[in-house]
Structure formats: C-alpha cells, structure tokens
Amino acid sequence: MALTLKGVTKRVGNVVHIHPTDLTFETGSFNILLGSTLAGKTTLMQLMAGLERPLEGEIWFDGENVTGMPVQKRNVSMVYQQFINYPNMSVFENIASPLRVARAPEALIRERVGTMAELLRLTPMLDRLPGALSGGQQQRTAIARALVKDADLVLLDEPLANLDFKLREELRDELPRLFADRNCIVVYATTEPTEALLFGGNTATLFEGAVTQFGPTREIYRKPNSLVSAEVFSDPPVNVMDCEKKGDHFEDADGTRWTAKGAAAALSDGAYTLAIRPHFVTPAATGTDPIPVSGRVLVTELSGSESIIHFAKGGGTWVSQSHGIHAFEVGSEAHLHADFSQALYFAPDGSFAAAGAAQS
C-alpha cells in the first residue's frame, strides 16, 4: 500500500500554489513536509486528503486512482495546528466520534477510546468538555480522535505549533511511538528543521510550492541536493558566501583561505558557494578544521542555554549559534571560528557540488 502523487499541481487563478509534484509515501512510513509558512505544506496535505482537487496530475492510493474521490470516502484522518474538537461533547465522545459515524459496535468503541485515552494520558478527562481542558489536553484529544479511526493515511498539519515548550517536547517523543505499530502512512508538516531531525523518517523539503528534495531525513540534512534545500533545512539560517577553489585550497573575497579536504578536494578549480550551519560557527575553536572568521556584531540573542550572534561578513550576514552565554556588544568586532570540515559546497547554479571532510 502506498500513496503516490503523479505530476500533481494546484493553481488559483494565475498563482501557483503547488508546482508539478511527484511523491510516493509507503505504508508504515513517517514522512515530514518541511518548509516555511506558505511553502505549500497545508495545500499539499489537503490534496492528499481529498479536501482539494489538483488542477493537473493524479493521486493514487493502494493501486487505485483516488483523484476525484471525496474525502468522506477515504480512510483518512487530519489534525490541524488549531485545536478542533466538538465543544458540547465530552472528551470520550470527541474521541469516539469517527467510530460512531462508522457505526462501530459500542463495545469496540469503548475499547478503542480507552486505549487511545491511556496512550495520550487522557483517561482522567474522559467525562470533561474540551473547554475544561488545557491547550495540550485539547490537542491530545484531537490526536486521539485521529488515531482511534485507524486510518490508512494520517495527516498532521503542525499539530504541536501552539503548545508550550514542555508539551511539544513530550508529544515529539510520543508521536513516533504511537504510530510505530500501525499499518498506515503518516505525513507531518512542520516549519522546524529540528523537529524533522527528531522524528527521522523521510523528509520532503518545500520552497514556494515546489518539493526540492525527498528522502531519508538525515541524508537530506547532511547532503542537500541544492542550496535551496540546505536553506530550508536550517534554522537559524544557513551561512553562505562565495568562494573560489584554487588548487588545493579555497579562498573568499576577504582573503580567508582554507585547505580543500574530503570530497571538496576533488572539485575543479572555479567559483562555488559555501554553506555552513550556525552551530558550526562558535566563539571557541571546535571541530576538526576551525578557521577564524570575524565581523561586526549586528544582533545578539542570549538565553539560559545558548547564544546566537548575527554578524556582518563578506557583504552579508552570518549567524553563530553556540551553547552557553557568550556576550558580544553590538557594533563590536566578533572573532569566531567556523568548522569548515562541516561545510557544504554548491555550484554557481545552486546544485550540490561536494561536502566538507566531516560530511563526506
């Protein structure tokens, strides 16, 4: 059983919401749609669910063309970012509602609702109305309703975005386990690269309605196929700069030089774009190939556990992200280190060229 999108597109007037898209999600897989707000994640999910119909292309499920099939005839569940529960029904009845629509036997309803409530720690709240619950409990109720249906396709559209930090962390740990033994396809939309890495599975990176890459999450993170995919998969933004390979080394416009190592050593001489994620740019010299970098401090963000420094470099802005408190005065010169063994190199057209030694 698989869900396959074949050349699916969506336009509203002259505005393209989804560019031609080919994707296949296998049964038992946990899949992430990663992209910024308005990248097309929700629209793509609505097409998968049958809530929207593609302008072009086809959607196949389990060998059947379901492109024109209404959502009511599909075995699909969807959980949205906003809590959607029936306000005048108890938590028990909210969770049970899909089973009642399917006219399931009462004994089966009680058994499955009880199981879901236990999994999501809702058993003490089953007699309450949603309005008496916390935000996290309301979202757990919505997730339980999606799970109790035992759907073939479960779509989760940023379901944790409105929860506080502690609840997000708890549900991030729980969700993969909840689906581990289910014979279904899970598609989870998020704007957060960290969330994608925590879930693992497969990731599709989206940018302005186009899927730029799809595959195992950690593989895409380590070796994005384009600069666009690397930018989608980085928060804070990935640091980029132009450089040139000259024999056994690279050089940027500021005169910084570093040795070409790993797969990057085999690149032809010429112009490239280097990309390096912020957590590899730190006040202390760490990693296997730390290179001094410096620039005027533009913004500092300090929390109890990390420091984020935005500084000017090479006509652009770079970001350093490091553990601990590192105070830099705005306007001062920051002297930092970038571990260039973690760098990614892209050709002038934005396509992936090579990874640094640690990524090769």
Quickly list its features:
six-stranded antiparallel beta sheet, 360 residues, alpha+beta
What does this structure look like?
By secondary structure, this protein is α+β, with helices and mostly antiparallel strands. Helix content is 23%, strand content 36%. It has helices at residues 41-49, 91-101, 106-119, 135-148, 165-179, 193-199, 217-222, 227-232; strands at residues 2-12, 15-26, 30-34, 56-61, 64-65, 76-79, 153-157, 185-190, 202-207, 210-216, 239-246, 249-252, 257-259, 270-276, 281-282, 290-302, 306-313, 316-323, 333-339, 344-346, 352-355. The strands form 4 sheets. A 6-stranded mixed sheet has the order 6-7-8-3-9-10, sandwiched between helices. Helix 2 packs across helix 3, helix 2 (91-101) packs parallel to helix 4 and helix 3 crosses helix 4 (135-148). The chain is globular, with a radius of gyration of 24 Å. The relative contact order is 0.12.
